[in-house]
Amino acid sequence: MTLFGYRIPMMASLIVWALVWEIVGRLDLIFLIPPMTAIIVAGFDLMQTGSWQNATLVTVRSFVIGMALAIGVGVPLGVMMGRVKIIDNIFGLWVNIFVSAPLSALVPVLMILFGMGEATIVVTVFLFAVWIIVLDARAGVMQVPPSLVEMARSYGASRATIMRKIILVAALPEILAGIRIGVIRGVKGVVIGQILVAVIGYGELFELYSRSFDMERFWALTLFLFAAAMVLSAVVENAEKRIEYYAGAR
Amino acid sequence: MNATALAADEFDPASVVTRDPVVRVEGICKHYGSVEALRGIDLQFERGKLTTLLGPSGCGKTTLLKIIAGLVPATSGRIIVNGRAVTGPGPERAFVFQDFALMPWATVLRNVGFGLELKGVPADERNRIARSYIGEVGLQGFEDKYPHELSGGMRQRVGIARAFAVNADVLLLDEPFSAVDEQNRRKFQEDLLRLVEMERKTFIFVTHSIEEAVYVSDRIVLLSPRPGRVSNIIDPRIDRTADPDDIRRDPGYLDVVEEIWQGLRHYAE
Ligand SMILES: Nc1ncnc2c1ncn2[C@@H]1O[C@H](COP(=O)(O)OP(=O)(O)O)[C@@H](O)[C@H]1O
Ligand SMILES: [Mg+2]
């Protein structure tokens, strides 16, 4: 973005919106929107409380476990689907249904299956994240040039070596892109899961603050989640950039 | 009958038996499903010689080369290399791919040394060998570049250096210069001749360019359109001690080009 010939960094637009928010908040027009400064102060306050620390721990833990499962299952499944026709036929339809299905509707069923606790959240994160990871890994493997595989074969590479040195490396850009989108979906999963279960982690706090009309803390919590999602996505994007030099060049 | 000078009308398979066949192709047939790609191919390839497979596109040149490489199974017939039947790829054969088949994420040095890397040669040694072949193909100073930083011609030099680095007896080249522009192509052909001269290896070279075939080959195998069969074998016998530009103007050279063209023209309709 440029203004009067000066380059304006991305952060500037965030600051402008925060200012608008602050003004609207100060005008006391809508009680739902307290001033931004008050939200930020509430955020720092919140960080001191045991209930926030505990909720954050629970949230991060179920997110990390759910994502680890999604990556651990999704990447190998996608790679196998890209390589083996039969496996692709068996799973292809289901993956495509689930990738665009309204998974929030499944959470109540998960609550019955896994109880009103962390297990349900972990499964929700997994279900939100895994399908896009599978599809992108599959797409990455399918675009590996056959001549590269043939080349490795002609120099005596075993199947395992071809997988490790050619297929996985060649598919890495797509695999990472899938993980990045999976991470964003996983954040959605952990929030939606917790809000629906409503007795653990951030879900419990959201429930508490919205019922007591504590909008400052409510928004502070929301800001934390936005920031977390952005930071996570930036981390994966950074990993993607490191290998972009060849992703863009093929 | 003279065993080496064969005109189109006096072709006799029995007369082209070579003295030191490194590669023997015996009765190779190949079907892709209902498509018959190759029918009854019998050929022998001599050490230190460059043989070209020449024919219209789709006649099975790549298929035959990949069968010799052990990358594609034949429907029937067999390939004997150094007295042993081929069942898959082997260290005595190296393949140069039409689309280069370079790893875009690896430097020139790693790409050239990749055949050695797969054989488990330690890094020091394979880098030393790779560097020497990078010099051999004229890419000195490009060791740390990535393929996308190179021109098409330079990329194929990397592919050729990689094939040379494993020190195979038999080099299989599938239209290696087809993606190279005309000026560089000539330079390439001269470099290839120099490498043939230098390394006592068996070269099997695929092209669809008649001029290229006549210029670089000791022997040209003409294949008919699908199903591919051997339709003629020609020994150009060009005097390569002459200046490259003189060779291309030499009446003998032009006669062979014309002869092949006449032989192929009834396919061109
Ligand atoms: N993997 C394959 N599956 C089916 N048909 C193939 C395959 N590879 C080649 N063919 C067919 O076999 C014939 C010979 O192909 P190819 O060996 O590539 O010819 P050339 O290299 O002489 O152009 C063509 O008709 C082609 O369509
Ligand atoms: Mg071909």
From TrEMBL, chain A:
Looking up Gene3D superfamilies in the UniProt record yields: MetI-like
Cite the PROSITE patterns for this sequence. Answer: ABC_TM1 (PS50928)
Domain of life per record = Bacteria
Where is the chain membrane-spanning?
29-47, 59-79, 91-114, 120-141, 189-206, 218-236
Keyword Protease annotated: no
Specify whether Cell membrane is a keyword of the entry.
Answer: yes
Q: Which InterPro entries did the record assign?
A: MetI-like, MetI-like_sf
Membrane topology for this entry? Answer: Multi-pass membrane protein
Which cellular compartments is it found in?
Cell membrane
Provide the ABC transmembrane type-1 domain boundaries: 56-236
Q: Which UniProt keywords apply?
A: Cell membrane, Membrane, Transmembrane, Transmembrane helix, Transport
What does the similarity note say?
Belongs to the binding-protein-dependent transport system permease family.
Name of this protein: ABC transporter permease subunit
TrEMBL record, chain B:
Q: Tell me the protein family, please.
A: Belongs to the ABC transporter superfamily.
What residue intervals traverse the membrane? none
According to the UniProt entry, its GO molecular function terms are:
ATP binding
Q: Which UniProt keywords apply?
A: ATP-binding, Nucleotide-binding, Transport
Top-rank taxon of the source lineage equals: Bacteria
Q: What is the name of this protein?
A: ABC transporter ATP-binding protein
UniProt entry tagged with the keyword Lipid metabolism: no
Residues covered by the ABC transporter domain: 23-250
Q: Which organism is it from?
A: Paracoccus benzoatiresistens
Keyword flag Nucleotide-binding: yes
Q: Which Pfam families match?
A: ABC_tran
- What InterPro entries does its record include? AAA+_ATPase, ABC_transporter-like_ATP-bd, ABC_transporter-like_CS, ABC_transporter_ATP-bind, P-loop_NTPase
Xref: PANTHER family:
ALIPHATIC SULFONATES IMPORT ATP-BINDING PROTEIN SSUB, TAURINE IMPORT ATP-BINDING PROTEIN-RELATED
